[in-house]
Write a structure and sequence with these properties.
CATH topology of the largest domain: A middle domain of Talin 1
CATH architecture of the largest domain: Up-down Bundle
Helix content: 40-55%
Strand order of the largest sheet: 1-2
Shape: globular
Pfam family, one: CCP_MauG
Main location: other
Keywords: Heme, Iron, Metal-binding, Oxidoreductase, Peroxidase, Signal
Number of helices: 21
Strand content: under 5%
Number of domains: 3
GO molecular function: peroxidase activity
Subcellular location: Cell envelope
Amino acid sequence: MMHKLISGAFLLSSFLFWGCFPEKGPQTPEQVKTHLVAEFDSLQTVAGQQLLKSAQHGDSTAVRQAFHQTRQAYKQIEWFTEYYAPSASRELNGAPLPEIEIEETRVFDPSGLQVIEEFLYPTWQETGRPELVREVNAFLSTLKRTRVILDESVLTEGHILDAAKQEVFRTMILGVSGFDTPLAKTGVKETAVALASVGEVLSFFGENAALQRLLKDAIAFTAQSADFDAFDRMAYINRFATPITSRLVAWQKELQIPFVPSALALNPTATSLFDSAAFNPDFFTGTLEARTSPEKVALGKDLFHNPILTAGGRTCGSCHQPELAFTDGLAKSNALQKGKFVSRNAPTLLYAGLQHAQFYDMRSPTLENQAMDVMANKDEMHASVAEAAVRLSQKPAYVAAFKKAFPTMEQELKPRYVMMALASYVRSLAPFRSRFDLYMRGDQRQMNGQEIKGFNLFMGKAKCGTCHFMPVFNGTAGPSFSTTEGEVLGVLQSPGSKNPVLDPDEGRYVHNKIDELKFAFKTPTVRNIAKTAPYMHNGAYKTLKEVIDFYNRGGGNGLGLNLEHQTLPSDELHLTAEEQKALIAFLHTLTDPPL
């Protein structure tokens, strides 16, 4: 039945691609909106008449069939909900994990299609039918509210095209990784439906033979995939997805449709996820004043390596050394007191600016807050940003440098300028110059067969890409990059011991007493991971082989712990020795040249 459903989507898209194209004009947004209304109605019908009824009375086969039909109908509108109604989209198809409001110390139960999936896979339990019916009704209620958002939305050509491009990015980051279909493993086939929906929307802008041919071929490539684990994700990205987004940007220029203002994480003119300037670093800053500039970066770099900040011998570079990818190579960093150590491993600062939470326990929302916290910590720098500002204000050269970096600065050199300068430098540490990046930009000499296999495993069977999101490979999920996630893994105190013992560090729970956050830690980037050993927050894992073995066996619970809120699936990944070597080979391609 799944084959028939996918084939139907493919035939529909094929009809649109080869049919008559309307001329682009001022009616285009309204035409797209009318099309969306029809798609919403179709989803409402499928979910209400098929999924709900089968959830109430059908057997497992009927419920699963209706579920897949509903998911595919949702993929027809996903480009809109994710872009125009992200909060509703999380309720419709968000991760099946509780949503935690830190400020309010509240936990909200998850909802949507991924929650429904857990009732159906890996096995159907008749006893879960009442809860399943409740979840389907909640989905229908959210869908109704989302339809109101559509009715009230004002669509523009620039935003529609940007949303379409982001949907293609979404298939690359989340779709083919199986992020939203972890149990049913239909993410690759659903990518075909998502691409068809993009094609339908683009048809309202006129005809573009090259683009429609790329979309048709991409749909065929994904729709015909029979084995989720074996799907060639690298081929999909390089042969189809990236050429589609590149051609889409070129077409928008040809149509003379203005690009949306650069207020999102991805620059609207980026042709690819792997453009060197694809990211807008200012999206991750807390204030307009904190936005980066060459002057701020240069000043921050000087301060980063200058003991004037502490009036002692220690600098930021003491624990974040450029030659070690801005780590220190220790399990836990040296404390100020000789022979003592701080409580956690020093994370890399490379790409630290492309996330919304700092420190392993995510206690600081910005790099500015992080700088202040580290400066004040009695074990790390035991200094004061305010005192550092006073010392700097007594040096005319620094006063001039600060005035150049912050033209609106008053006479007084305030502490916040020190923090913003340091943060600007750290935000500049996102080079995207690894062999992987060069390969994705077209230099086929940069990666070999084993490394490409490792990438496909990372994004597929090994499930790494469902937590370490491409292209930054950290816990900030694209293409919106609006939130940074943490995970409960069950990290061991001493890997390899016969009797596994959970590391006692309670992570985010130390600062936020919410049970679901106990032993939760931020998902860091794995870029430059070949240089950042030892691993995990406690530095207990000395090699990548140890880390991969830990994941392969299902984390702490897979190793025999009883961790109630572990977010990492406890099932074994069944990675062979050869596959684990390929994964490590791929991870080595993420190493940037020295800065």
